[in-house]
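Subject: Sanity check before I submit

Could someone independently write out the structure tokens for this chain? I want to compare against mine line by line before I put it in a report. The sequence has 605 residues.
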Amino acid sequence: MQPKDDGTRTGMLPADDCWRAVAEAVDFAFQPIVNVHTGTCYGYEALLRDWQEAGFSSIQAVFDAAHEDLALYRLDLMLREKAVEKFASIPHHARSRLFYNLDNRVLDMPDYAPGNTSVILAAHGVASESLCFEISERLEVKNQPQTQKVLTSYRHDSHLIALDDYGVGFSGLQLLYHSEPDFIKIDRFFIEGIARNVKKRLFVSNVINMAHMLGITVIAEGVETPQEFCACRDMGCDLIQGYLIQRPTTQIDELSATYPLVGELNSADRRRSPTDEHIVADWIERVEPVSVASPMAEVCRRFNCEKDRTSLPIINRKMEPVGIVRESDVRQYTYARYGLELLMNPALRGTLRNLVTPCMAVEMSTSVERILQQFTLGPQAEGMVVTTDGRYVGYLSAANLIGAMNEKNIQVARDENPLTRLPGNSSIHQYLQQALADEDFAHAFAYFDFDFFKVFNDANGFRVGDRAIVMFADLLRHSLAGGEHFVGHVGGDDFFAGFRLCDDVSLARVRELTRGVIERFNRDAMSFYDAEAQHRGWIEGTGRDGVRRQFPLLRVSAAIIHLPCPHPEYSLEELGSAMARAKETAKDARDHFYQTSLRDGDQAR
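---
Independent answer below. Compare away.
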């Protein structure tokens, strides 16, 4: 039986009474999806509720039964209309989006037919681009060509696509490749405890980088704690969803256009480094965008008037970037036979959309380093779109990105040690301030200081002394590579390393790393001496008191200060004094190592 084409609301097949009763019995709860930087609500996910009232044991049981009965598509259309109708009752729905879970199996139903969604949206006054279909990776897509064809149709109708439950399903990268989604929703499995789990952070960071290179927005699902929120934000997630912001609710009046909690969390996070927003703002081009609904004549006019411009940013009615249109793509039509007539023909709706090329988009608050990383690892492009709260604000060309990076490098170089190229005192102080303000994690600080360095310099000269300093800096970088560690050069022969303790980096591990650095340097430093001095184990020299005597060979001492969680409030000056005392104790220790804790003054060797 074919779908009715009688001009009714949905034009769908008449549903069996039992499935209509199911659709009437269930309800939808909405859960907000918000901007991780501002708390502005980007959209709401519709989640099925009251399935028990319809006689089912779970949400999945509803759709499994409908699938078995070959009624899945008919049921989905009724639920789809119910969700759209409820979404349309939200006062600020025009500035938001509806994320609707699409059971992949509806595409295999014998009565599936395109076009019904547009009718439903129009009936309730909801814009086409306000609907985003969520395709779950948990359900296997069997008919890949058919699925791709349907998704292309949805995209042509201005609907968006989100890949849900990413990382725990069947198809993985293959589904990502074929579906070309606008959003990736990272599954709760990877978000839970991510602040303390290095492997999860590594996985999520790589997914975020890959998504951004493809122009895909990343949503972190199931964010429940401030720690998970901060970790997702710091790694580059664009949007978040979870109990921390709001639990799903069936009450429309409980939904908000903005969620101040996000701003409060960002303001309260004293660990957060200053952003590069002012640098990015100085270097972006405020290119006037073109609406995706504009006629091709407008695009041609812009390129004709702006001779030096090779591309134009394209936006939708919500001022969100859709991509870019390249002048070279338009030129292909103008040079082709009848090409200009095709471009200008108003009957060919969607021509401009067909010429749109995906483009990487970054928030204004993104660090210059992260922007450069996404740009260099991504597909070849002239630049990227810059947004604020998801709305277009400008375009950052490749040339201007280089300019922004140079400006950032100059700022960093002002504090960088010119010999070792490690961060200097300003960066070290900033790191310590952030660590002292971090009430959710324990920290460990290691302070390294050469012993008998004056005598070593006197005997070998300052150039050899500089070589020893550079050798230690390289050793420190190599020994602490691959982790979330901070390494700095205080000055001279003094170095600093900071560690945030978590499941994967324990205090015992910090102690092991520090002792390893001591042993390696003390062994490598022997290469600066001749065989005789190595055999003796000492050289003659003049101490700071002016007395000439025998001194041991060059070595390094290290002191670790443990900052537990929770910890009393310490000032930077108090921490500095504790470090100075610990360093002196380490120098007098037989193994040149000392460890202490700031919690209660307890000390351990």
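---
OP: Matches mine. For the report I'm noting this point. Residues 415-604 form a domain with the Alpha-Beta Plaits fold (CATH 3.30.70.270).
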